[in-house]
Write a structure and sequence with these properties.
Helix 1 crosses helix 3 and helix 2 (23-36) runs antiparallel to helix 3. Helices cover 63% and strands 5% of the residues. It has one domain. The longest helix is centred in the first third of the chain and has 14 residues, at 6-19. The chain has a two-stranded antiparallel sheet. The chain contains four helices and two strands; from the N terminus they run ααββαα. The protein is globular and about 35 Å long. The chain is mainly α.
Length: 83
């Protein structure tokens, strides 16, 4: 990710927001992210179904919060999608 890119700016903005949260809120966020990952590896939408859109944000929030997710399973699920 190149410095100054949209992706870098977005990540750093999220990381800054996370750093401003209380420890309790940080723990709740990380727990929520981890619980949102489905057995198939993607992250669940509001209906509980694996969803690519929700997976983008799930991966971002896992990276920011250090949530314990199964990254290998998620990457396998993403690689299996025929874009």
């Amino acid at each position: 990710m190149s410095e100054g890119s949209f992706a870098s700016t977005f990540y750093h903005t999220c990381a800054d927001g996370y750093a401003r949260m209380s420890r309790e809120a940080q723990a709740a966020l990380a727990d929520s992210v981890a619980q949102s990952q489905t057995a198939g590896g993607l992250f669940a939408n509001i209906a509980g179904q694996p969803d690519l859109y929700y997976s983008f944000f799930g991966l971002l929030l896992a990276a920011v919060s250090g949530a314990k997710i199964n990254l290998h399973t998620c990457l396998n699920a993403l690689n299996a999608i025929d874009f």
